[in-house]
Amino acid sequence: MSGGRQNLLIDSAALFVKTIISEEIKNAKFFSVSMDTTFDLSKKEQLCFVVRYVDSQAGVVHERLIGLKECPNTKSETLFEKFQAVCKENDLNWLLYLVAQAYDGAANMQGRDGGGGLQKLILERNPAAIFIWCYAHRLNLVLTDCVSCCPDIVYVLGILEGLYDFFSSSKNRIDVLDRQQKAMYGKVVRRLKRVETTRWWSHFLALSTFLLIFDALCFSLEAIAKSGSLEKDWKAAHQAQSYLDSILTDRFLLTALTLKKLFSVIDTLSKMFQKVDIDLLTVVEVIPEKIREIENLRTDEAFKQIQEELTEFKKKIKLNTTTIKPLTNPTRLRRVPKNFDEEATDEPITDLVQKFKVDTLYRAIDVTLTQLKERFGGVSEGIYKDIALFSRKRITEVSENSQSLPKDAFQVFCNTYSRFINREHLIREYLEFCKVFPQVEKTAKLPEYLHGGAARDDFPFLEANAESGEELDDGFDVHSDTSDLDEPDDFEESLEDPDIIRESPGDPDAIEEFLEDPDTIEEYPGEPTVFKNTASTLGILRLMIASGMTSAFPTLFTALKIAVTIPTSSATPERSFNKVKITKTRLRTTMVESRLESLLILSCENDIKIDPDKVIANIAMKSGSDVVKKMVQC
Predict the structure, then answer these.
(1) Which residues have a Cβ under 8 Å from the Cβ of 243 and sit 6 or more positions away?
(2) Which of 36, 42, 232, 480 is deepest in the core (most CB within 10 A)?
(3) Domain ranges of the chain
(4) Short-list 94, 41, 32, CA closest to 63
(5) Which stretches of 30-150 are DSSP H helices?
(6) Cα distance between residue 324 and residue 248, in whole Å
(7) Is 572's pLDDT higher than 90?
(8) What mean pLDDT is reported for the chain?
(9) Does the pLDDT at position 349 exceed 90?
């Protein structure tokens, strides 16, 4: 097949996918955008264009790639022109139905000091397209400040990066580490990871890997140091011995365990921000909770627990613990001079443990807390307060007392989206929905007995069918998504299946499946999951769809769809850049823009089934050959 025919086939298949996405967006009505740029191997700036929308029939959030355009520069005006071109190409009415935009913190995206930026250019023409600064990028900035706040942390991460370079620069050293892991653990557990500032949570991954293979790593360094001396590779021997001496200290291990404790608290927050189906309400509720968890680490009890973890770590490792150096004082204690208006001098801390707690643990926690509060301080203001009323907690509160609804409820939200939502109608429907919510929520889970507690022994055919695996006459499958899960972990894996929701809206049996989402459930060993997350608007939206109440509360349904459509991060464009690197390799740097865009759309949106007949019809229409057109028509 010639290159032209290949491009024609690829473009036709991508056009079919883009047509399906465009139809889904029109059915959803409201959408938001996320954009980001990257520098590819051919030294060209590529702009990634992702659209977020909600499937009104299934209550599923989609983030789809619909464009990858080459930009001559990254000025906000140029990006705005590309944005308009992509919307026109995909027939998207952004002036009317664009409800939000999410970017990173770059100056050309969000502007600086009240200046321009892409978000302002869009906002001037569509006031409803509110700007969301990507929460995942904000959290990465918090992490960057945390890991550079004190010498001990910088030293630990520097050693981890040095160990990665030391082993990866020689295949013989990698082989030594692999053989040591196989001898100690029976297999190669994990390779050392790089500490990168551009890859989110590479610090946590590198640190966890280091602690996991600590024994094998130490024995490997010891072996390399000895073999280097014998083979006269003095440089490698010196480096190996230096790294070994550096990591076999209480200060190093205590710092590493402190970082692991701190990172583990925020790790779930980072993963949550990168999920597609997370909504703003979840972010508003979960950030204060994580701040409180970090504040709890700034106690004597938490530090004592870290010390106990260090003691347990030493007991588990197979090294001679006497080789681990204890905490030592610096050779000279620095004294702070007394100023003229001070009554006493600052005495240096002489207790080694106390000094580590103050200088390393407390400083890292204080910097993290300060940055979290500064960068996420505005999440509970303005429109976020109105969206918080869609939480299950607030709905339950209003259902018990309708007078508890604030007098200015939904004021900012309705002012922003006044084109689609009438505030009086929204408040009336909201109050009516709150009244019926407790009863509707009860129907989300079938009771154990439908008719007064009849015993299972009264129906022996149930046991027979359960053993044989046959389907019951009433349509229930004994091997359904939840009945054959013995362990909670298996149940959680089933929830991660994007195809788990298959029932039609309005079917009572589908309500539980609509609510079964990792963000909206709580696990109980041996029990079915129940609706739990008070911070998910998506759970309320799915409840309305599953119970068939969308037509009864049209304004509330529209408001919920808009709230769920608002993105929290621009992580999807970042993930798309990985596909750019895979598609446009060093052997394909001359690939034209249209081919790269089509291949990337087909790669990222591979869950959309392609109709071969329609693709062939597109090829016939584009080929310009009358003979081919007639053959397709026949």
Answers:
(1) 159, 162, 163, 166, 221
(2) 36
(3) 3-133+570-633, 141-330+350-375, 383-449+478-565
(4) 32
(5) 76-89, 94-97, 107-110, 118-125, 135-146
(6) 5
(7) no
(8) 79
(9) no
Q: C-alpha angle 392/393/396, rounded to 5°? A: 80
- Give the CA dihedral 437, 443, 444, 446, nearest 10 degrees: 160
What SS3 state is found at 518?
A: coil
Could you tell me which residues are beta bridge partners of residue 53?
Answer: 62
Identify residue 77 by its one-letter amino acid code.
E
CATH number at 3-133+570-633? 3.30.420.10
- Beta strands at 31-39 and 521-524: parallel, antiparallel or unpaired: unpaired
Q: Which residue type is seen at 333?
A: L
Q: How confident is the model at residue 197 (pLDDT cuts 50, 70, 90)?
A: low
Q: How far apart are CA 545 and CA 551, in angstroms?
A: 9
Q: Which of 143, 139, 286, 273 is nearest to 204 (CA)?
A: 143
Q: What does the pLDDT look like over 144-194, one tens digit per residue?
A: 888 888 899 999 999 999 999 999 988 889 999 999 999 888 887 788 888
370 token code pair: 């300060």
CB atoms near residue 171 (< 10 Å): 9
In contact, 18 and 66? CB cutoff 8 Å: yes
Distance between CA atoms of 380 and 386, rounded to whole angstroms? 9
Residue 558 structure tokens: 């529209």
The answer on pLDDT for 230 being more than 80 is no
- What is the reported pTM? 0.74
Contact 543, 514 (CB under 8 A): yes
The 8-class DSSP code of residue 520 comes to S
pLDDT tens across 47-77, in order? Answer: 999 999 999 888 899 999 999 998 888 888 8
Under a CB-based contact definition with an 8 Å cutoff, are residues 256 and 248 in contact? no
CA distance 64 to 447: 39
Say how many residues make up the chain. 634
Residue 351, Cβ neighbours under 10 Å: how many?
Answer: 11
d(CA 101, CA 79): 13
56 is written with which tokens?
Answer: 């009104």
d(CA 195, CA 169): 16
Question: Which has more pLDDT, 595 or 2?
Answer: 595
Q: Is 102 within 8 Å of 134 (Cβ atoms)?
A: yes
Q: Is 408 helix (H, G, I), strand (E, B) or coil?
A: coil
> Dmax over Cα atoms in the chain, in whole Å?
99
Burial of 523 (0-12, 13-18, 19+ CB in 10 A): middle
Kindly report the backbone phi and psi dihedral angles of residue 52, in degrees, each rounded to the nearest multiple of 5, phi listed first: -115, 135
